[in-house]
Design a protein that fits this description.
GO terms for molecular function: GTP binding. By secondary structure, the chain is α/β, with parallel strands linked by helices. It has 10 helices and 13 strands. Strand 6 and strand 7 form a beta hairpin.
């Protein structure tokens, strides 16, 4: 009995492992596209699970608007989300605008649409570029963005962490360029050069209805040349395209950046329909009409097509760079 039991493992060890290879074709068949299933498994149900969970918990989106006073930053944010999200009600029935101070101020709202809740934080930068000497006027903005990274990092490295860390990191920065029709100012170039390294910068031409179509096209071409000459990478960055489909989509967006936008938070009657627009003596500039301005392209980029990508790049690229730098600094003697 002992001899038989001692020889049995040796005999099993000499047998070739052919059983697993023979059983595999019974359940799956491998091909160029991977494993092909012979029946319905229900893997696609995970999408419904993710949708239901997201609808219950909601998600966070933080946006920053930067530009000189009078370029319509608050109006543009209100137009994006079709509500007065850039103003904070301090008392019932009373609204007040974000005060024009040097310090950055954030306003948070919870927006719900078709059962999906979004915690939206809008950070305004009043006073940016309004002084005679605008040297280092971007320092408070850089400091604020890094402070949000630092706050997230401190929560992340705790031994006992929260199940969901509050995310106050800036996912997108919309930079408003005055519609001068000339080249970019040194202030614009320096701001985008510095900020594009730590946050997703989306440049737009503010109040584009002050330019003719020919002036707008020429101004956009000059801006694109300036960005290329100074090696400024604005969102969507070409280096972060994951696959050919993303590259093809983003190439079309990059050709049209910066978007020439017009903001309006008042409705007007046009051909029997209520539309958002700006009323002039020549007619009404319809904000959501692609023939009038490129606001629909900006809205699609920030909300409908690239919102999750903005959050992913913020977490995987910009925050990751900050985290590596901070941990390296803390490990140095």
């Amino acid at each position: 009995i002992r001899a038989g039991s001692s020889l049995e493992p040796e005999e099993r060890g000499m047998e070739p492992p052919a059983a697993p290879e023979e059983e595999m074709p019974l359940t799956t068949a491998s091909g160029p596209a991977g494993c092909q299933l012979f029946g319905y498994v229900g893997i696609e149900a995970v999408l419904d699970q993710m949708r239901i969970k997201t609808m219950k918990t909601g998600f966070e989106f933080n946006i920053m608007v930067v530009g000189q006073s009078g370029l319509g930053k608050s109006t543009m944010v209100n137009t994006l989300f079709k509500s007065k999200v850039s103003r904070k009600a301090s008392q019932p029935g009373r609204e007040e605008r974000i005060p024009r101070t040097v310090q950055l101020q954030s306003v948070t709202h919870v927006i719900e649409e078709k059962g999906v809740k979004m915690k939206l934080t809008v950070t305004d930068t009043p006073g940016f570029g309004d002084q005679i000497n605008n040297e280092n006027c971007w320092d408070p903005i850089i400091k604020y963005i890094n402070e949000q990274y630092e706050r997230y990092l401190r929560e992340e490295i705790l031994i006992t962490r929260k199940r969901k860390i509050p995310d106050t990191r800036v996912h997108g920065c919309v930079y408003f360029i005055p519609a001068t029709g000339h080249w970019l100012r040194p202030l614009d170039l320096e701001f985008m050069r510095r900020l594009s390294k730590i946050v997703n910068v989306v440049p737009v031409i503010a109040k584009a209805d002050t330019l003719t179509l020919e002036e707008r096209a020429e101004f956009k071409q000059r801006i694109q040349e300036d960005l290329k000459t100074h090696a400024i990478s604005v969102y969507p960055q070409e280096d972060f395209d994951q696959d050919p489909d993303d590259r093809a989509l983003n190439d079309g967006i990059r050709e049209k950046i910066p978007f020439a936008v017009v903001g309006a938070d008042q409705e007007h009657q046009v051909n029997g329909k209520r539309v958002l627009g700006r009323k002039t003596k020549w007619g009404i500039v319809e904000v959501e009409n692609p023939a009038h301005c490129e606001f629909p392209l900006l809205r699609d980029l920030l909300i409908r097509s690239h919102l999750q990508d903005l959050k992913d790049i913020t977490h995987n690229v910009h925050y990751e760079s900050y985290r590596v730098r901070r941990l390296n600094e803390s490990n140095q003697p």
